[in-house]
Design goal:
alpha/beta, two-stranded antiparallel ribbon, globular, 2 domains, single chain
Length: 423
């Protein structure tokens, strides 16, 4: 079987497409760490907190129960960890929602107002990306599914990744633009980037073993699937957009499809090793614009307003929104688990986090923040555990532990007071 370098590309007519991790890239005679799959990290952000009683389990350790909001992740119970009781300190003088989002991953302690009144600084994703990016195409990618066209809020409500105080790493919202940034932009006459590299892919396939040929075929199919879904979204937009308006954006109309398409792009970008760090904003903080949750409600709902609405009906709607968000996160986890890599799956070499910078949206509390992680980061993280903390334990303790797991030499992160056990 032909041996391949990790950076082998499929080429054709000016296009280049990276390959997934194949068995041929790991010679049996090599046991060096450089032959091991790389570590990847992703953070998925949900706004306005969660319905706490439906999210947090009661039991701790390994004997914890799947709660109603987390039920979509039931199949990955042994591959996930839950953290409850983690807090973040609010710095007065700025909006409570804005600070919840923009400072969720910040490496600045609340006592440092480095950006006006905000304690923003280089965020965890950027710290880790600087350490593990190596020769990837992009050190990190920042994605957002905020498709609201009205600019009701400032950038602090919709940016969770920052390169430094006052310098947001702007999130991309158009799947077409993300795809072309990662994989190149074919000529308008070319329907698929695969058309350009088909000959090279066929030539390579004839030199591979049966297992790698199967992996290559599945990978090319997944790239084509993303292209086709973007084309359908663009066609739908074109049909409802007058010719006098701007070009179609390529954003799917159906909410879940939009989120899943972004999840697929993250999965393929990790598979290709185009990047090893990603953030995804599900929705911005506060933004009082009704949102249609397709398949969940028959009419648009205002997530933020619901958090301040009393009564059982509002609580039930909020629980449905929480579960909807977890379903989309579970889709990303499932996609990663289905991609073979090394002796396991791509998910095995990832640490994927879901959470919010606010605990209870009704009270605007930064206490008991919801945090879920999935993946064992190549065996470095012990999974299947619910860790619960009493008292004021900073969320930054978890972020510091993640940074150290990535190999970052740091003893402090924001207002951390120590680390927590991940292994």
């Amino acid at each position: 079987m032909k041996r391949l370098h990790r950076r082998t590309l499929l080429r054709g007519a000016g296009a280049a497409l990276a390959l997934p991790w194949l068995d041929a890239m790991t010679p049996r005679a090599m046991a060096a760490s450089s032959s091991l799959p790389p570590k990847r990290f992703a953070w998925v952000y949900i706004p306005n907190g969660v319905v706490q009683h439906a999210w947090h389990p009661q039991n701790v350790g390994r004997n914890w129960e799947i709660t109603p909001s987390l039920e979509p992740l039931a199949a990955f119970r042994e591959q996930m960890n839950l953290f409850t009781g983690l807090d973040r300190e609010f710095r007065g003088g700025t909006g409570v929602h804005a600070q919840a989002g923009c400072c969720w991953l910040s490496s600045s302690p609340p006592t440092e107002a480095l950006d006006g009144g905000f304690p923003t600084n280089r965020t965890l994703d950027q710290v880790i990306a600087q350490h593990i990016a190596e020769d990837t195409l992009l050190p990190s990618i920042q994605l957002s599914c905020n498709d609201h066209t009205n600019q009701k809020e400032t950038r602090y409500f919709e940016n969770i990744s920052w390169r430094g105080p006052g310098y947001a790493a702007p999130a991309q919202k158009n799947p077409r633009e993300v795809f072309e940034r990662l994989f190149g932009k074919p000529k308008p006459s070319t329907k698929s980037i695969l058309d350009l590299v088909r000959e090279d892919a066929g030539r390579l396939g004839r030199t591979l073993g049966a297992s790698d040929r199967s992996k290559l075929g599945e990978y090319l199919d997944s790239v084509r699937s993303i292209e086709q879904r973007m084309q359908r979204a663009e066609a739908q937009t074109a049909r409802r957009t007058p010719q006098s308006l701007r070009q179609p954006t390529g954003i799917p109309e159906e909410r879940g499809e939009y989120l899943r398409l972004m999840a697929d792009i993250i999965a393929v970008a990790f598979q290709q090793d185009r990047t090893r760090v990603a953030t995804l904003l599900v929705d911005p903080e506060r933004w009082d614009t009704p949102r249609m949750y397709h398949g969940v409600f028959d009419s648009p709902q205002n997530h933020h307003v619901l958090t301040h609405t009393k009564g059982d009906e509002a609580q039930k709607k909020l629980q449905k929104i929480d579960r909807f968000h977890v379903e989309q996160f579970a889709y990303l986890v499932k996609r990663l688990s289905e991609i073979p890599e090394g002796n396991g799956s791509l998910l095995d070499n990832c640490l994927i986090s879901l959470g919010s910078g606010m605990g209870d949206g009704r009270r605007h509390e930064y206490n008991n923040l919801p945090v879920v992680t999935v993946g064992n980061l190549g065996g470095m993280v012990r999974t299947g555990v619910h860790q619960s903390f009493n008292g004021k334990v900073p969320l930054a303790n978890l972020w510091l532990s993640m940074a150290q797991a990535a190999g970052v030499e740091a003893e402090q992160f924001a207002d951390s007071t120590g680390t927590m056990t991940l292994s």
